[in-house]
Design brief:
The complex is a heterodimer of chains A (262) and B (137). Helices cover 29% and strands 14% of the residues of chain A. With 262 residues, chain A is an alpha+beta fold. Chain A folds into 2 domains: 127 residues, Ubiquitin-like (UB roll); 119 residues, Fumarate Reductase Iron-sulfur Protein, Chain B, domain 2. In chain A, helix 6 runs antiparallel to helix 7 and helix 6 packs across helix 9. Chain A is elongated, with a radius of gyration of 22 Å. Chain A starts with a helix and ends with a helix. The longest helix of chain B has 29 residues. Classes of the chains: A alpha+beta (262), B mainly alpha (137). At the A-B interface, helix 3, helix 7 and helix 9 of A face helix 1 and helix 3 of B. Bound molecules: iron/sulfur cluster (SF4) and FE2/S2 (inorganic) cluster. FE2/S2 (inorganic) cluster binds next to loops of chain A.
Chain lengths: 262, 137
């Protein structure tokens, strides 16, 4: 007969007794939630979470999922800024939850801290912070993000000079988190725009001296939904957790199209 | 030969093939160049009309007639009219492309835009070239 009482408290997936470390402060976490089975509209849920300043936002989400509300849904995998699965809108800007430290979000002057967390914008929401990434990956695939070469296979390694490698070094760092594309106002209003991430990954091959399909990719990005849609707002560069100069990469593709140089 | 390299993409929406047209490139380039020209043309125009000796108060029929007697000012005003119309129209075209959700809305908004551009450009051009300073009235 203790089942109801248990159900009430043990609603997290790891029980109801969270370990609260010494020195924890309480912060308010407001999460934009949506459950397609019950909600017509997304709603805000507010939680009080004890946390250390050295915690990451991902830790707060874990706390909530494990000890408070097991139905909270979000993606994460590596928890170390490598897999790119936990991009979300934190206090209005796109960030990886596993890379944002609580101490950088604390309200100064002893005021209470509120953190808002929303799903990334411009992609259909499946549930809570989980969005459908398919439109994003469709644009990625459409720019042919793989090495293309024609003619006979070389018998040796494809040699590249350090200077040639340097030209696309920045854009090799992309982890496909979609933080850039979903921070772009053009993408919010027009989902058929390729978006910064696809252009970054096209850039990675367009400027690779070993690749032979720069023309094809440039043709793709020269069209209505390509680079000319970019309004140079720099949201993408600001959002990129890998520090990629996204807007610069887009500008370089524009320049390659204008001056027919790669 | 390139087709052999395209990987199969199951379950994914497909984009139409690239049209191999440079239209968007030229439209982008036109915006930068006409923007620069308009800065000079419009600021010069505002300066002459509003600040130079007496400003707006001296503008009347005779003043306009005097200016348009010179081909230099005719060309200036003509360039301003055409560039401002096409620059603004192209800007609105991109705004419509961004915000119109339905293809039919997009089509009709663009038609409205193009018709108004053509009307204003032809009317303005007509006035600049057929202006008659000896009109009485
Ligand atoms: S460019 Fe940066 S923000 Fe965009 S998908 Fe790649 S890693 Fe994420
Ligand atoms: S969980 Fe892998 S990048 Fe954040």
């Amino acid at each position: 007969m203790s089942a109801p009482a248990e159900e009430k408290t043990a609603s997290g997936s790891r029980g109801s007794e969270p370990p609260v470390p010494d020195g924890a402060i309480t912060v308010t976490v407001k999460i934009r939630r949506f459950n397609p089975e019950f909600d017509d509209e997304p709603r805000w849920d507010t939680f009080e979470v004890p946390a250390l300043p050295s915690d990451r936002v991902l830790n707060l989400l874990h706390y909530l999922k494990w000890y408070v509300d097991g139905t909270l849904t979000f993606r994460r995998s590596c928890a170390h800024g490598i897999c790119g699965s936990d991009a979300m809108r934190i206090n209005g800007v796109n960030r990886l939850a596993c890379k944002v430290l609580l101490k950088d979000l604390l309200a100064g002057g002893g005021k209470a801290t509120t953190i808002t967390i929303e799903p990334i914008k411009g992609l259909p929401v499946h549930k809570d912070l989980l969005v459908d990434m398919e439109p994003f990956f469709e644009a990625y695939r459409a720019v042919k993000p793989y090495l293309i070469s024609y003619g006979n296979e070389p018998t040796r390694e494809r040699i590249q000079s350090a200077a040639d490698r340097e030209r696309f070094d920045d854009t090799t760092k992309c982890i496909l988190c979609a933080a850039c594309t979903t921070s772009c106002p053009v993408y919010w209003t027009e989902g058929s725009y390729f978006g910064p991430a696809a252009i970054v990954n096209a850039h990675r091959f367009i400027f690779d001296s070993r690749d032979e399909a720069a023309e094809e990719r440039l043709d793709i990005l020269n069209d209505v939904d390509g680079v000319w849609r970019c309004r140079t707002t720099f949201n993408c560069t600001d959002a990129c957790p890998r520090g990629i100069q996204v807007t610069k990469a887009i500008q370089e593709v524009k320049r390659a199209l204008l001056f027919k140089r790669t | 030969m390139s087709d052999a390299l395209i990987l199969d993409k199951p379950r994914s929406p497909r984009r139409p093939a690239a049209r191999r047209s440079n239209f968007e490139l030229y439209s982008w380039l036109f915006m930068r160049i006409s923007g620069l020209a308009l800065v000079v043309l419009v600021l010069g125009h505002l300066f002459i009309m509003n600040i130079l000796d007496g400003g707006v108060h001296r503008i009347n029929f005779g003043f306009v007639a005097g200016r348009w007697a010179s081909p230099f000012w005719q060309v200036w005003d003509l360039a301003m009219l055409w560039l401002a119309q096409i620059h603004g129209g192209n800007g609105l075209r991109t705004v419509i492309n961004d915000y119109a959700r339905k293809d039919s809305t997009r089509f009709w908004l663009k038609m409205l835009l193009y018709v108004s551009m053509v009307l204003i450009i032809s009317l303005g051009t007509l006035v600049i070239f057929t202006f008659d300073p000896n009109i009485t009235g």
